[in-house]
Amino acid sequence: MFNLCGRFSLWLLLAFTPLYAQQSFKDFKKAQAESFKSYKDERDNAFEKYLKQEWKAFNEQKPTPLYEEPKPLNITPIAPQVQNPVGPKIYLQVKEDANESVIVEIKPQIIKQKALSFDFFGTKMSFELSESLKKSNFYPQNQSGITNFFSAAASSDYETLVADIQAAAKEMGLNDWGVYLLVTKISQTAASNSDNTNLLSWFLLNKLGYAVKIGLANGHTVLMHYAQKSIYATPRYSFGNKNYYVVANYAKGGVGRIFSYDQEYPNATKELDLSLEMLPRFAQNIQKKSLKFSLQGENYNVLFSYNKNLIDFMATYPQADYETFFNAPLERATLSDLSIAFKEYISGKKASNAINFVLHFVQSAFVYQQDNEQFSREKVMFAQETLYYDKSDCEDRAILFSSLVKEFFGINVVGVKYKDHMATALYIPLEGDSVSIKSKRFVVADPTYVNATLGMSMPKYKDKKPVEYIIVK
Questions:
Q1: What fold characterizes domain 91-98+278-471?
Q2: Structural domain boundaries of the chain?
Q3: 127, 242, 343, 460: which is deepest, by most CB within 10 A?
Q4: Which residues of 1-34 are buried (b: 16+ CB within 10 A; e: fewer)?
Q5: To which H or E segment does residue 326 belong?
Q6: In sequence order, which residues have a C-beta less than 8 Å from that of residue 42 and are 6 or more positions away?
Q7: What pLDDT does 205 receive?
Q8: β-strands 286-295, 89-90 pairing
Q9: Dihedral, CA atoms, 357, 359, 360, 364, nearest 10 degrees?
Q10: pTM above 0.70, yes or no
């Protein structure tokens, strides 16, 4: 039964016993013989035969770098600036904290086994794991073992588990990355080793319609996801004109040559889309934070709340394209708190002063630090994460500033990417440094250049042409 309300708990009262328990070779052979009965899904007969065909080698493709040149280690602030106020007066509207929790009731099911239970970003979850699905095992540890696993899984009672995953994903508002994490958590909880974890995830994701492949490297399984957009710092393999990524190895190094197959599981064509247009609904772990900064001798304090479970979810994200991060929303409770705090400081001010105030907040409320120093890897942060962490670099601040400008002022904003830096530009009638996008003039606003006002670029980038513009929807 689902019960999503208040602190949002989610329960599926179903069944649990350890998956892939140790069994004798005789028991294993018996289980495999039973699995070769007719499949429930007609796609599985042809695919099982295809898996038995000879596989071929695929070479790992060189990962695409996010930046062509390293980002600056330090950025020197400019002396405090004063800009003549222009534009209409701004009266900031407080953003309401919408209650996103819902109540869903599902008729109780007959409990035949114990539940496969775990915590998923603060949310208690349980799923049914049938006795027949437990018979799926990677044995022997070669291509035949993968075919054996698929045959056992395809003839098992897997339908309830797939349906429950779909129901949970819908009620929690999970995007593709959330579904991947949920399936991975189920497989890790159920499986006895990483090979079986990959194989169970492969089987379930295929049944959920995702284009995933399994491969072999050094006697172990490798799970690969099809994605149209680049996933940076992640092992990649080309199957025809499609790229498949080993997302489990994000920022962990290469995999090397693998052996796999060309054909996709029938009708499983869905890509791994990392877009986060709606935040998932997790159990509430509300915490508060205060951000302080100074401007022209005055001290300011911005207090806001956030759900730590959501921060933990975002921390798992691989290096997706910039549009994913620039277009993800802030949590409604956080945005409501920020709008209350900023209303006190900017309501009644001229538009340029109000926007400059938000710009100075992003410039000064955080310590500048490269991702490699803070995380030992490149990590682009969502706006929600930048508020949470005390340190951030250029693209993190650009993402946060663009989000606040869009929410508070309704102004068109773009990300402005250079070879080693990220700024923003606003579609406003103001003098200063600018960029031209589709015959429209956008005024530069650099959230990393401390004390700079609207229309001021860092000297290094004043005459440089950006390599990319990120459109904020």
A1: C8orf32 fold (3.10.620)
A2: 2-66+99-260, 91-98+278-471
A3: 127
A4: ebebeeebebbbbbbbeebbeeeeeeebeebbee
A5: helix 322-326
A6: none
A7: 98
A8: unpaired
A9: 140
A10: yes
